[in-house]
Amino acid sequence: MTPDEQREHRDRLLDVLLREELGGARPPDLSGRIARKARGRGWVRFLWPALAAAAVLLFVFGLWPREPKAPVYPGPSASGAYRLVGAATVERGATLVTETGRAEIELGGYCRVRLEPRSRLRIDGTARAESVFLASGSVSCEVEPGAGAFDVRTELGVVRVTGTKFMVGLLDRQPGSALVVTVLAGRVRVAYGGHAYALGPGATRTFEPARPRAAFEGFRGTLRGLVLSKALPASLTFKVLDVVRTVPESRAPKPEVLVGHTVQIIAEWEQDESGRRVRNPNHLNLIERFLLREESTLNVVHVRDELFRLGALSEDQLRRIGVVPEPDTRPEPDPAPEPESGLPRGAWGFEGVVLGTVDVRVDERTVRFKVRQVVRVGEANRAAEPGALAGRTVALEPAVEPGDRGAVRPNPAHLDFLRRVRPGQTFTLELRHIAGERFRILALSEKILAWLGLAPGDTPAVEAPEPESQQAPESGLPAELHGFAGRVRGKVLEKRGEEGVLFEVTSVLRSWEGNRAENPKALKGRTVLVVAPAEGGAERRAIMQRYIRQLKVGERPRLELRHVEGIRFEIGELTRRQEQQAGRGEVGSRKSEVGNRE
I need a surface site. Which of 163, 402, 525, 586 has the fewest CB within 10 A? Predict the structure, then answer.
């Protein structure tokens, strides 16, 4: 091939390559213009090949300007302890459910959502407008400012943000109860009940249906509930599960309306040694130690609206914050006059099981009930003299429980029971004092429930118990508990002299290796007779007998028990503290159990 033919072949090849890069269009011919400008120069014959080669390199190696490619928008991703519902992978439309652990969800690269335990969430939204639907539980969210929109939707309302840190929770894990929003940084807008609310940094607000506040104005007493959130150092949000008791000074006409609702509880103000007004340090310490969704029982006093302040802390709460309760060395006060209701003051705050007779019906929800005997005192009893309730006539009401949309309703079984009883019928009932002469039914026995549901024509009368200070326990023990060996906690009900003590088991802490009971946990709620072991040496038996003799009625020890026969259980090993209580000077080589509280 001659040099001219080689140049012609090269030109055709360059022309084809340029056509492909330019989408089929023929490249403009600039050779003549370049040749005229370069005429008279000796290197003009080398210029065209060099320019053509440079153009090819620009196209082939991507140096020629092209349209920029759009970045890929990241899809949803998750990590942690969760399970998927409705989808095989983490994607829009998938529902994530947590049990005891947490899950971390990332949306669009700018939204990070932490799903708390016992929660349920669905991933919705679109690119740059991420959204989740919270069906139950709670979430903590962090959104980068300016990257896109984000909202948390619930059946109650919507929380919208553009850049902030915040928490959203549904109370009691039930849609329709209440919505709690806490802002850690930035601002959020909440759409609830047809209105919009703006919340700033540090704000916590509970959105729920309105309630009759006048019904609990002036409340003083004890509430049991869940810690939903904390605004450190001095405030917490508290979901009321039950009104445990009211004190005589309480002015609330219907404190039971608090059940199912959420209140704010703050530390009490007091004066320090210099006269300055400060928050109670024990209250601050306790609030700091509370865990989210922890169940607790608190003494409170109503301040205004939905605000309550903490009252006296229990001995367990004082021990929890490292304060050892000092023994009360004050002299016994003179007996206070009985309240106007006629109920002895020593019976205020009673909780337990009583035997009595229906006196007269007041209305569809209330009957008058004459207490014949106090059968058993409950664990949450606050009455100084429970036995003073015997012989008194009280008003029985049904327990209340949360209903639809945060409303409160009477327990259906209790209501049916009160409607069907007749004067003269005798029952054994578990009751709790509310206020005045009013008592609330806590639980109905299996016999009464069967009478209500299966045999409507029968009369659920029961025989009077033996004429003793406590009702005798069952003569036998279920076969599933035979051979029990383990550690329990309970309450001393009655001392039986040299025979031992009647002991109500409130919890089974653990079972030992030698346990032969098929269902050790079934011992909870049983009343047993605790005795000293028959074997093991005279010294050991003497120590056990001294320990049993020094136990007091109402005391709540932790004991190692071994089933012998019937309802008889022998004490196993004593802790070092229990041995000291028994009066033994020398302590054996056994290690004391850490954290034992009696």
Answer: 586
Distance CA 85, CA 99 (A): 13
Candidates 192, 197, 99; CA nearest to 154 is 192
DSSP string, 69-121: PPPPPPPPEEEES-EEES-SSS-TT-EEE-SSS-EEEEETTTEEEEEPSS-EE
Structural domain of 247: 213-320
Same domain for 218 and 172, yes or no, is no
Among left, alpha and beta (phi > 0; psi -120 to 50; other), residue 21 is: alpha
Residue 350: both structure tokens together: 């009673």
Same domain, 91 and 193: yes
**What backbone phi and psi angles, to 5 degrees, belong to 182?**
-125, 125
Q: Are residues 251 and 361 in the same domain?
A: no
Query: How many domains in the chain?
Result: 5
Separation in Å, CA 139 to CA 167, 287, 492:
6, 21, 44
Listed residue (374, 364, 360) closest to 398, CA to CA: 364
> Partners of 299 in the beta sheet?
222
CA separation for the pair 127, 71 (Å, rounded): 12
* CA quadruple 52, 53, 56, 57: dihedral sign: negative
The crossing angle, in degrees rounded to 10, of helices 446-453 and 412-420 is: 80
What residue type is assigned to position 371 of the chain?
Answer: V
Distance CA 13, CA 155 (A): 69
In a domain, 309, yes or no: yes
Of the CA atoms within 13 Å of residue 482, those in its CB half-sphere come to 7
Q: What is the pLDDT along the chain (598 residues), one digit of tens a residue?
A: 676 776 676 677 666 555 655 555 555 565 555 556 555 555 545 555 665 666 555 555 555 555 566 678 999 999 999 999 888 899 999 999 999 899 999 999 999 999 999 899 999 999 989 999 998 888 999 999 888 999 999 988 899 986 787 778 776 534 446 788 888 888 889 988 778 888 888 788 878 765 556 678 889 999 988 888 887 788 888 988 888 888 888 888 888 888 878 888 999 988 777 778 888 988 998 998 888 778 889 999 999 888 899 998 988 888 888 876 555 444 444 444 433 346 787 888 889 999 888 887 777 778 889 998 888 888 888 888 888 888 888 889 888 766 554 445 678 888 888 888 888 888 889 998 877 788 889 888 888 887 777 343 333 433 333 333 333 333 356 778 888 889 999 988 877 766 688 888 889 988 887 788 888 888 888 888 888 887 666 777 788 888 888 888 888 899 999 888 777 888 888 888 888 887 743 333 333 333 333 3
Q: Are 554 and 441 in a shared domain? A: no
**C-alpha span between 533 and 564 (Å, rounded):** 9
Look at phi and psi of residue 442 and say left if phi exceeds 0, alpha if psi is from -120 to 50, else beta: alpha
- Comparing C-alpha atoms, which of 87, 100, 192, 183 is closest to residue 137? 100
Strand order in the sheet with 149-153: 83-85, 95-97, 120-126, 129-136, 149-153, 157-161, 188-192, 195-199
Contacts with 311 (C-beta within 8 Å, 6 or more apart), sequence order: 220, 268, 298, 299, 300, 301
| Residues 6+ away with beta carbon under 8 Å from 415 | 364, 365, 398
Find the CATH number of the domain harbouring 194: 2.60.120.1440
